[in-house]
Fold:
Amino acid sequence: MSKMSVDFKGVTRLILAPLAIMAALTIGVGLLITKVLQTTTLIANDQGVNAQLAEGRTAQLSSITDVLSGLSDTPVIIIATALLVIGFRLAFKRWNESIFLALAVFSQSAIFLLSTVLAERKRPAVEHLDPAPPTSSFPSGHTSAAVAFYCGVALVLTLHTHRFKILNVLWWVVGLGIPLGIAYSRMYRGMHHLSDVSWGFLLGLVCIAVAANALLFRPVVKERKKILST
Structure:
């Protein structure tokens, strides 16, 4: 049997503090875009990317981006995360990898939701191919969730197959390729600006880094084996 030990000081220092800083930065950038930079050339160029993508839409690309975007829909991420939390626990005989993935996905979601409520950035001024709230553009939750989940899974697999270079390359081709495809899809479908998906990508990476540092590299959660006497 094993008993889980939690370093609560480590939780505060390695998890809560850096995530709070990232949340403040995300909210600050969102407010800067919506309250200060909205009429600047920078934002105009940002919106121009969506206009160009909308002009080049085709039926085939619209179908492909619909599938790619769906890989980061909320139900998909929740179910996939829940399954891998169980799968990692069974495969690695400990909770660190499972808690890491859950924390990375949950933390980006919490920061994303808080930021969209406060920033209230309008979506690009092009036809939207997906239904969504009109003032939830910054940051891109689909992108941040994709990075947290797919790159998070790639990191876990890499740590456990580090001797096999071909497998490691494969994990990261998929782990990075899917989020990049989703980021493009969200812009193509008129749901997010380039700055939205860029910050969403950064948000996902930061959440992975924080969770990995606290649970995989300098674990604040440890399992101690208990020896049973007869």
About this structure: The chain has a mean pLDDT of 91. The CA atoms of residues 96 and 215 lie 6 Å apart.
